[in-house]
Design a protein that fits this description.
By secondary structure, this protein is an alpha+beta fold. It is built from eleven helices and 25 strands. The chain is globular and about 60 Å long.
Length: 482
């Protein structure tokens, strides 16, 4: 394993960075509403113009007050429990897989991974199997050059702070078909069969391949009219505000960030031949680094042990499978229990950027992860958990991790701790960093790494399964900082 699993519970993110000797970036949390920011493109014109919306946008200061109120209102009681106390979940006789009695939602299985070109040639690990396709969607208005987005304050059991800002709709197939017997998902109808001229973005994208087996979600941005009002727990924010708020620790959840990366932009269109060159390079990397995976019984994984309340690696590194009980005042059902993944150690995902011939570029890494559907995807320059890196031989550790952790503050453009998806991960988060690269372009060249223009990244993202989840978060943060 390459040490890419992300992070532990934490309280003072700034203090943790100071202990590591890394620069701490200042936060901006109250800058007003504003309009469309540089780098945010206008949306394609609809053939059926929408009337002007009737509801105002929250100022940023009012938003923080609104969010604090929802954190106080959407209370959750999340407790670690032994596996024997899980309700509706059990270990399947024979395989030992952890599954729900309905056969839906998700299950925890074991996989054996063979990697002829990696630092570890073979390993076993637990992985989340959820073959259904979920919907992640943001409803938008554009009025007078300002785009507003309908967002929700959503409580998830694994969130470090209970409630984070989620898209308009964030629902697995099991959720929106109401397998749990709970209440309907608000606004779902906006995304199930929207008119073509109102669809701004629509693509299938991968989930983190370290933890999910071939999981993908439909990412959608849909234009709506004034008949769509903000229900309790929802609010309207501008794209510019979202780009400011992504710099606040543990505020924008993982699904918000990945849908944000699909927003239109003003970076221009990459020439098709340039996009083809990057795609051919990625295909070659997929052939050179082809992970082979097969299912193994969860109870027979080498190097992993199951106790009464956790499935953990013998080294104590990577991550564990744990169980929780949840009581919630704001979810579709008031109480349940479920397994969650808990990362060990704070993950780091970093993007080195620079202008080449005046065009913003990022140093992307073609990463193979066991759960990817189509092989390697473009990942950040660095994506790892530093503590787990120490288990690898020095020649196989991330070549740019030291440069991230020791970057001077004047070159750091973004430095924020953000949570992984709280419906599947318990207090697991990653430090996301964007750094201006120094020195000559050629000094950064390594096998598997390539400078890719922001225009090329945007074109590849429209195709799906080309840019991984961590890189999409960094693209969402990067777009507001050029």
């Amino acid at each position: 394993m390459d040490g890419s699993a992300g992070g532990p519970p934490g309280v003072d993110a700034g203090a943790d960075r100071r202990r590591r000797g890394a620069p701490v970036r200042p936060r901006q949390t109250d800058t007003g509403a504003g309009g469309t920011s540089p780098g945010v493109g206008s949306f394609p014109a609809s053939t059926s113009p929408l009337p002007e919306p009737s509801e105002s946008i929250l100022s940023t200061s009012r938003f923080h007050t609104w969010m604090a109120a929802h954190r106080a209102e959407q209370t959750q009681d999340v407790q670690r429990i032994p596996f024997s106390d899980l309700f509706g979940w059990d270990f399947v006789p024979g395989s030992g897989d952890l599954a729900h009695e309905s056969g839906r939602f998700f299950r925890i299985e074991g996989v054996r991974v063979e990697d002829d070109g990696g630092p570890v040639r073979t390993w076993t690990q637990p992985i989340i199997r959820q073959p259904e396709i979920g919907i992640l969607g943001i409803a938008v208005h554009e009025v007078g050059g300002t785009t507003r987005c309908l967002m929700q304050a959503k409580a998830e059991p694994g969130n470090v702070n209970g409630v984070q800002l989620a898209p308009t709709v964030q629902a697995t197939h099991s959720n929106y078909t109401r397998v749990h017997g709970g209440s309907p998902v608000p606004y779902l109808d906006l995304f199930q069969d929207p008119p073509e001229d109102r669809v701004v973005a629509d693509s299938l994208q991968s989930e983190p391949g370290t933890w999910f087996d071939r999981k993908r979600n439909r990412h959608m941005i849909v234009r709506v009219g004034p008949e769509v009002e903000a229900l309790p727990g929802f609010c309207w924010l501008t794209v510019e505000q979202l780009q400011e708020l992504i710099a606040v620790d543990h505020l924008l959840n993982m699904t918000t960030r990945t849908v944000m990366s699909c927003l239109p932009h003003e970076w221009g269109t990459a020439p098709p031949e340039d996009v083809d060159r990057v795609h051919r390079w990625l295909v070659r990397r997929r052939c050179e680094r082809d992970l082979r995976t097969r299912y193994v019984p969860l109870s027979e994984m080498e190097g992993w042990r199951r106790s009464a309340d956790a499935i953990s690696h013998d080294t104590g590194a990577y991550f564990s499978v744990v169980a929780v009980s949840v009581r919630s005042a704001s979810r579709e059902v008031p109480g349940w229990s479920q397994p969650l993944i808990q990362g060990h150690g704070l993950g780091v995902a970093a993007l080195f950027t620079r202008r080449i011939d005046g065009v913003p570029h990022a140093l992307m890494h073609a990463r193979a992860e066991p759960g990817f559907l189509t092989g390697a995807e473009l990942g950040p320059t660095v994506q790892c958990e530093p503590g787990a890196q120490e288990l690898l031989p020095p020649e196989h550790r991330s070549p740019f991790l030291h440069a991230v952790l020791n970057a001077s503050s004047d070159r750091v453009r973004f430095d924020t701790e953000l949570s992984e998806e709280g419906g599947r991960f318990l207090n697991t988060h990653t430090r996301y960093v964007i750094v201006d690269a120094d020195g000559d372009v050629r000094e950064w060249e390594r096998p598997g790494y390539r400078w890719v223009s922001v225009r090329e990244i945007a074109a590849l993202m429209r195709e799906g399964f080309r840019v991984n989840m961590q890189a999409r978060t960094l693209v969402a943060a990067w777009r507001g900082r050029w």
